Amino acid sequence: MKNSCKIGIGDLSVTDHKLIIGGCDSTELAAKYGTPLYVFDVRRALRTAKSYVDVLRHVYPDFTVCYASKAFGCVGIYSLLEPLGIGADVVSGGELYTALKGGMPAERIYFHGNNKSRDEIEYAVESGVECFVVDSERELELVNEIAAKPQNILVRVNPGVEAHTHRFIQTTTPDSKFGFSIADGTAEQFIKSVATYKNVVFKGIACHIGSQIFEKQSFEIAIDKMTDFIVELNALGIAVERLDLGGGFGIKYVEEDRPLTPEEYMQNSASYLLSSVKAKNIVAPRLIVEPGRSIVGEAGITLYTIGAIKTIKNIKTYAAVDGGMFENPRPSLYDAQYTAVVADRADAERTHTYSIAGKCCESGDILIDGIKLPNLHCGDILAVLSTGAYHYSMASNYNRNLIPPVVAVMDGKSDYMVKPQTYEDITRNDCVPFTEVVK
Ligand code: LLP
Q1: Residues sharing a CB contact under 8 Å with residue 34, sequence separation 6 or more, in sequence order
Q2: CA 127 – CA 181 distance, rounded (Å)
């Protein structure tokens, strides 16, 4: 008899005590592909992405949803999202290249970043990206100089909203490296100067107040400040056709997290923006939103094999996994919290407390510090949940560990989205210098 239940994060369920994702048994995935392994539930990500488009279609007249590539960039993600009419936010030549290779049309690509290089700008101009989100005077000069025909630009501004999230992922504090400050007049000054450049067309303003934000109030404050600024610009005779509010919509990592749904985030921001433009008597700009984490985050899990288990008397018990900060640097960077289940007894009682350690040579390489789990044994498969965003994209080869592959799952089938790295891959670009001299 099958025994099924739901798990409180993503689209995960348990059948016969086993964790199921995208219709696949996670223990079989681990056996087939090995661990550590990123698993990505395609339907879950597509459904979330589509919900952004669907809700905005109902509540706002003119909008663009741009997927924030930084959350999870690989060729396959663009091929999956493109048919939904979604665009992409890219922040480097590498993200741009990947997006184009995945079939994302250049005319749906917004190029962000606070220090784009000349090469990157040349590449973006050549590719015909839709818009540069300009974040410095130097960038404006470079775009103007390189462009053969006028390029659309948005100006990244800092509206000064202290969103309630980890300080390393807040982006509009007064001392932020991003954007031109509205408060001190720099943004207005800069935007006025845009008219003096003949190869750029000012289309509007952009901000991004931070990431993993739960309260709608933070977005409302941003909208207030951005629409006040539009009023100011209009008074100078400067039209604002587009308003990019960035991303930042939070997801669930642990049981206590209470994010809004994408529908709620969008419904709220779009209707708040509409009433704001009405009250301030300004033209409703095209609304651009850039969700990253919320599209892919809960669609991903990471599977590990438990190795060494070590108890330090009266202190704690470590259970070490075959991954760590090289494939998930978030706990050490942001003190990020996660939950996990044992893949073959996902509904078992949690009787023991463990610190889940990574295998990197750093004391700080702890993925979860103190989690209740069933009694663990060497060889158990552990699934850490909500790892679809900022995991693969932030992975490194630290300690020359291999970046795990990404396996996509859908309707009970699995397929590579990113193939495994090999030792040959990680030494491919290595050279032995000065061989003639050093003998
Ligand atoms: N748009 C802009 C201009 C951004 O800078 C970002 C994220 C996004 C959109 C997407 O934000 P999301 O919807 O994914 O929250 N590595 C950190 C997150 C850094 C986010 C940086 N910018 C983490 O792992 O939490």
Answers
A1: 420
A2: 30
C-alpha 37/C-alpha 407 separation (Å) is 7
* Residue closest by Cα to atom 24 of ligand 1: 390
CB 155 within 8 A of CB 134: yes
User: 318 alpha carbon to ligand 1 midpoint, in Å?
Assistant: 31
Given a contact cutoff of 8 angstroms between Cβ atoms, the answer to whether 66 and 288 are in contact is yes
Please report, for the chain, how many H helices and E strands are present, in that order: 12, 22
3-state secondary structure of 71: helix
Query: In which residue are the tokens 């040579």 written?
Result: 361
Whole-number Å distance between alpha carbons of 208 and 63:
16
245 vs 289: CA distance, rounded Å: 6
Q: Is residue 361 annotated as a catalytic residue, yes or no?
A: yes
CA-166 nearest atom, ligand 1: 25
| Residues facing residue 14 across a β-bridge | 5, 19
Calpha distance 351→83 (Å, rounded): 46
CA 413 to ligand 1 center in whole angstroms: 30
- Look up tokens 């663990």; give the residue: 376
Q: Is 250 in the pocket of ligand 1 (CB under 6 A)?
A: no
Residue from 74, 361, 378, 431 carrying the catalytic annotation: 361
Count the Cβ atoms, other than its own, within 10 Å of residue 388.
29
Q: What is the dihedral of CA 161, 162, 163, 166, to 10 degrees?
A: 140
Residue ranges of E strands in 87-150: 87-90, 109-111, 131-134
CA of 290 to the centre of ligand 1 (A): 9
Of 251, 227, 253, 249, nearest in space to 240 by CA = 227
**Closest by CA position to 301, among listed 384, 212, 236, 373:** 384
> Is residue 293 in contact with ligand 1, taking CB distance under 6 Å?
yes
Per-residue pLDDT of the chain (439 residues; tens, 9 = 90+): 467 888 888 899 999 999 999 999 999 999 999 999 999 999 999 999 999 999 999 999 999 999 999 999 999 999 999 999 999 999 999 999 999 999 999 999 999 999 999 999 999 999 999 999 999 999 999 999 999 999 999 999 999 987 766 555 556 678 899 999 999 999 999 999 999 999 999 999 999 999 999 999 999 999 999 999 999 999 999 999 999 999 999 999 999 999 999 999 999 999 999 999 999 999 999 999 999 999 999 999 999 999 999 999 999 999 999 999 999 999 999 999 999 999 999 999 999 999 999 999 999 999 999 999 999 999 999 999 999 999 999 999 999 999 999 999 999 999 999 999 999 999 999 999 998 887 6
